């Protein structure tokens, strides 16, 4: 589901640095309402999402968590491929198709990632990025509890990406169970990966809402430009690795020539989304 991706995206935003940004160019005409919704989200997170994520880390070995991340990323393949093509990025579309084929077969439905060792690097695309490439403006900033940060363009993109996702075409009780399971796994993996960084934001950021808003805008700009914009120190969920950090995880930041496009990112598969 598209919701599975939104969780990844919001987690990346929350992992942003806790320093104030010199400029925050995100249009936020509904800031009062958005701040209220952000407060609601914080309540839900501290009461439910964070404790569950800490429990997931405590009982799940690191190799299993890595396999879950790989599996989630692999499921994004068809959506990424469709947006690569729509953006005219045919070389990247070929890489996406090859990665999906290799990891789905040799990688055992994506649990392992042999494609990366073969030089087929990960990247992400979503229809919000595609609309931006086509010249559509982002529109006002939105913050939706559990769904996380977005704007009018990216919210529309989330809906279209649901159409691109083959799992959403399936019908029946088993398909619904699979969609629910993917949403739960995505939410757990995303939230667990940023436990320390969200703690740091809450403890040290003067204005967590503004920090997340600015991070979202800059990370989106980088994603739209395929990492070619001058974005420094913004975290990339796709580059998160399980090593050398508290709880066995560390967060790598955007390399100069690569990016993980936001797609979004919701737990609506848990309560009822997200890259």
Summarize, please:
With 275 residues, the chain is mainly α. The protein is built from twelve helices and two strands; from the N terminus they run αααααααββααααα.
Poorly predicted parts:
1-6, 14-23, 229-275
Strand pairing plus helix content: what structural class? mainly alpha
| Main sheet: strands, sense, barrel | 2 strands, antiparallel
Query: How far is it from the N-terminal to the C-terminal residue, by CA?
Result: 12 Å
How much strand content do the residues show?
under 5%
Count of β-strands: 2
The dominant shape is: globular
Run of helices and strands? HHHHHHHEEHHHHH
CA radius of gyration is 17 Å
Adjacency order of strands in the biggest sheet: 1-2
- Distinct helical segment count: 12
User: What is the residue-mean pLDDT, rounded to a whole number?
Assistant: 79
